Amino acid sequence: MSTSTLPETTPHPARKAPGDLQSIWLVAEREIGSKLRSKAFVISTAILVIAALASVVWGGFAANNAAGSGIPVAVTSQTQSAVADLEGVEVTVADDDAAATALVEDGTVDAALVSGSSDAAFDYTVVVKDSVPSTLLQMLSETPPVQELEPGAGAANVLRYFIALGFGLVFLIAASTFGGTIAQSVVEEKQTRVVEILISAIPVRTLLAGKVLGNTVLAMAQIVLLAAVAVIGLAVTDQAGVLSTLGAPIAWFAIFFLFGFVLLASLFAAAAAMVSRQEDIGSTTTPITMLIMAPYFLVIFFNDNPVVLTIMSYVPFSAPVGMPLRMYLGDAQWWEPVLSLIVLVAACVAAIGVGSRIYRNSLLRMGARVKLAEALKG
Question: What is the pTM for the complete model shown?
Fold first, then answer.
């Protein structure tokens, strides 16, 4: 009687589960891919880049046109020789020093060269109303003493306003866009029950870390792209002076934004995990959105207030805007950005801890909104 035996088979080894780092990157890739496939995101980014480039180029051309029209300067018979050989200066000859000063006061000219000086190297003084015409000083062979009739009145100038607006607007758009993306992704996964499948394969903390990492990569890429556009635009329009003073503040803005966004992203994910429907997102994320909007409005209305800017530069939510602006204005000491960054990193670590706890305790709770006290208790 013949017997048959089953062929020997080699058992398949158990498939090794991905490690935490690999799982984090897989989730991050998913977040990045879904965003890049969105036409709305691509179009909005392109519009933002074009608008940034256009504003820089327009500002450069406007400055060049203003410089090319000639600087109105009042002189007397004693000081006329100081500007006799200068190009780009519209000279008005006044009867005496008092008449030249009066032309400055009524806005007819930007500056006046009057006789007499406290510096032995000069026999004239430049009189201005509220701001020093740096282009005129560069035209002169040496920098003369300057007397301001209204000291400090020119601090809140147009350039200061637009630099402040730029930092505030970029922070507002990038943080709100990608923070909102995280919130929508979290609620969508809860609503469709996809999150139950995800956390059966990877830990909850890994899922949160991947979401934060993916959107941080996208946000930083957008910041770097805008910074590159600004640098190229300033270089093309020959705004070397502005470029040299903006270099360090832009670099620090990117560093501050990195940690500031991680802080906000953790809070956005935690807030979104407390609800189960897309229409309820605003009920938990509105306070975070207000924190993002606050620096934007503060720099618009208080960009000439050193006290407000100093406070902003040490508050974690506004430091990415306040500290780079103070550095551009020359109001910050060398150690202040380092101290402000330490405060921001500490706040970031604390926010990650609180956010991950709320996220973990709320993620699988469906139905009604989870109260904050319950989410923190677990």
Answer: 0.71
